[in-house]
Structures
1.
Amino acid sequence: MRRLRLTIHHLYADMMNLYGDRGNVISIKKRCEWRGIPVQVVDVGLQERIRPTGCDLFLFGGGQDREQALLAEDLSGSKGADLRAIVEDGGVVLGVCGGHQLMGHSYETPEGEELPGVGIFDLHTEPRKADEERLIGNVLVRVLAPETGETHEIVGFENHGGRTYLGEDVKPLGEVVVGYGNNGKDGTEGARRLNAYGTYLHGSLLPKNPWLTDQLILNALRRVDESFELEPLDDTMEGIAFSSVAGRVAGRR
C-alpha cells in the first residue's frame, strides 16, 4: 500500500505571518508526525511556481496592505490560475485574514486602490469608513462540518479594518457567537467552498482548534485515498484548553 506523504505549501511565509500564523504550519506538521504521517513543508515566495504533489495543503497567512498589493500582482498570473484549478479539483487551501481577503474577487485598500483577488470565493472586501473602528477581539464561531453534519465551535483572535461581504455562490465558514466576523453586521465569519477555507481568525488558529486541523489533514489525504482515516490522538489537554478559552470568550465562566 502506498504510504501517504503530506506536503504543506506555505504561501508567502516571509510576508504573511501576522499574529504567529506560522503556528498553523507547525500544528499540521506535528499532528501528522504524531500519527507517523510524513510531512514536507515548502515555502512558496514571490515569483515562485506552485508545484502540487497530489497530497497537498496550501496556507495563506495575514499581512499588511503593502504586502497584499505585492501578492495581488504575483497572484494575477499563472499562480492564481493554478490555485483556482487546485480548489476546483478538491485541493485544500486555508487563507487567514489577508489570505482570506485575497481569495475573493477584490480587496479595496484604505487609499481606494482596488486589488484583484484570486477568485476562489465569491466575496469582496471594502475598507472601513471614517467613522468605523477596526474589528478587534477574541472570537467564538459555530461551524457546521459538511463532511459529518456535526456542529463544532472554534476560537481565535481577529484584528482587521476591512469588511468582507459574501456573494451568493459561497457559504460562510461559520456563524459568529462572539466577535465581529467578516464585517460586524451579518453574523458571518470566513468562507468555505469545496475544500477551500477562509477566516479572519488569527491566534494562531489551528493549535487552538485541533478538530479543524484534523479536518484539513483528512481532506488532503483523502484526495489520494478516499477511505483514509486518521488515527485518534489523546487530545485531553487540548480539549481542556479549548473549553477554557471558549468559556471565557463566551462569558460562560
2.
Amino acid sequence: MNRRQWLIAGAATLAAPLLAGRAAQAQQKIASLNVFIPAGPGGGWDGLGRAIEQVARPAGLVSTFQFENVGGAGGMVGLPRFVAQRRGRADSIMIGGSVMVGAGLTNKSPVTIKDVVPVARLTEEVGVIVVPASSDFKTIKDLLDALKANPGSVAIGGGSAGGTDHITLGLMLRALGRSAKEASYVAFAGGGPAQAALLGAQVKAGISGMSEFSEQVKAGRLRALATTGEKRSDPNLPTLKESGLDVVTANWRGVFAAPGVKPEARQALTDLMTALHALPAWKELLTTREWDDAFMTGTAFEEYLAKDIASTETVLKEIGLA
C-alpha cells in the first residue's frame, strides 16, 4: 500500500464512526415521544407501549420516551384526558385497541376512540381462558358445563366491561344457550390486577390475551384451558370452536395520535411505526411475546376501525351489553 492509499484508508477508518452516527441520526424520526397508556401497568396496552420503546430507542428511531398510565373503564377514564391535554401535539401517541371500542359503547362515553387519530394497528392476539392451578376445572368442558348449569356461580375476571374479554364471555354463554346478562363478570383495569385476583382465588377463571397470562401459566400457577382464535395458537390447547362453541375472538392493539395534529405530524408518526415494524428486533419481539403481526396504516386502518366499531356495536346489543 503506497502513502496515498494508506492516507485514504486511514481517513475512511476515522470517518466510519462519524458516518455511522450520522446514519443513526438520519434514521431517528422523533427526538422525544410521550406515550399515553389508558390502562394500568402490566396489561396489554402497557406491554405494547413498553415494547415500542424497547425496540425503537436502541435503533435510533426515538431518543427519549415518557410514559403516563391512567387506567379505568376500558380506557374511558384516560381517553378524555389524552384528548383534552394532548390535542394537536405531534410528540404524543396513545396506545389503544379493540377493548376501547367496546368500552366506549358500553360506558356510553361522550369521548370515544372516534375522537383520536388512527396511526397504525400493530398486533393482534387471541385470548386464552385460564383457571388457578388448584381449580376443580381441569378441562374447558368442565368450565363450560359449570357455566351452562349456573353462569352466576362462576365468577370470571378479565379486562374492562364491554371489552374483548367481556364480549368473549357473552358469546360463550349465548352459544351455551344462556343469556349474556347472566354472566358473573369481574372487570379489572389491567392484566396485573386480573392475575392477582386469579391467584388469590377471588375469581374462578380468567379471560385475557395470551401474553398477559403466559408467564403464570409457564410457572404452573395458572392452567390454560382453551384459546379463542380460529385455529390453535398453542398445539396443546384446544380452541373454543374445537370444544363445541362457535366463538372466535381476537384482541388488536395499535397507536393513535391526538386530535388536531397536522397531517405532516401524523405522517411522521406513521413513518415511525413503519420503520419500527421493519426492524428485525420488532419481528423477534413479536415471536417472543406471542403476538401476531397485524400491521396496518393509513386508509386501510381507518376503514378497518370503522368496521370494527360497527360490528362491535351490533354484537354488544345482541348479547345485552349495550
3.
Amino acid sequence: MSIMILVAAPPVYSAPITFVTALPVAQDQLVWRNYFDPGYAGDDPTSRDRDLWNLLYNPVFAWGPTADLAIFASLTPQYSFLSENTAQGRLSSSAGGLGDSLIFARYTAYFKDWLGETLRIDPLAGIYIPTGWYNKSNAYGRLPQDMQVGSGSVDPYFGLTAMWKTQLNEFDWDITYRYNPAASSGYQLGNSFHTDFAYYRRIVPWILPDEGLDNQIWIGLETNLIRNGTSQVSGFNDPATGGFVWYLDPGIFYATPFWTTGMAVQVPVIQQLNGPDRLYGSFRLYLYFEYYFMMPSLPKWAQF
C-alpha cells in the first residue's frame, strides 16, 4: 500500500477574495482556502427591528491535475442568529448546519503569455449538491429565507471566468448562473445570476528581487452584482423573494511562498429586493487563510 504525502508547493499569488472561480491553480497543486465569514443585516423597514447574523466557516479546495484543468469543491457550514420584536416581546431564533455543497471544473480555453504577464479565459461547469436545509422551522413556524441555506435540489452551475495578471497588477472577472429545479416538496428556489470583478495591485515589495521568492502585499477593490429570481411554493410565486444587489469590497492580502491570508469588507451599494418587509444587508466580512500543497502528477495517458 502506498502513502501519498502532500508537500508544500510554490504559490501562484492569489486573488480574488469574494469569489473563487478565478482562483489561480497550478498543475499538480492543491489549494486549500478556508474562510471565516460573518455577515450582518440590520436595516429593517418594519417595526420588528430585526437583527440577523450569519456566520460561515467555508473550506474551498482546488486541484490542478493538468495545466489547463482545475477542479473545485466547497462546503458551506453556516450558523444564523435572528432577533426581532413580536407580540410576545423580543424573541430570538437560530439555525446551524451544512449548506449546499458545490463541485465544478474549470478549463482554460484560451491563454496568452508574455514576459511577466498572462491572460486566461476559462469556461466552468458543475453542480450544487443539496446538503443544506431549505425548509427549516422552529416553534414559531418556518424560518425566514435568509436563514435557509439550501435549495432542496441538484442545481446545475456554469459560467465563464477570465484573469489578466502582470507582475504589478491583476484583473479578475466572472459570470455564473445557477439553475434551481423544484425540490421534492414543491418548493423551488429562484435561479441566481452573478457577475464579479476584482482589481489588485502589489504594493510590497515595490520592486521585485532579481532572484528568489518574496513575500508580497496586494491591495484592491472587488465588486459583485447578484440577481436572484423569485422563488415558488406549490407552483405559486413568493413575492417576498428575489431581487438585485450590488456590492463593493475593498480588500488586502499578504502572500508568502507557501501560504496567503487576507480580508475584504463587502458593503452593499444598491439593494432592490422584492417585497415590502425584506431585511436589508449591512455588511459582510471575508477573512481567509490559504495554503498550497504539491500533488503527485497524473500519468501521461491521463493528462489532456
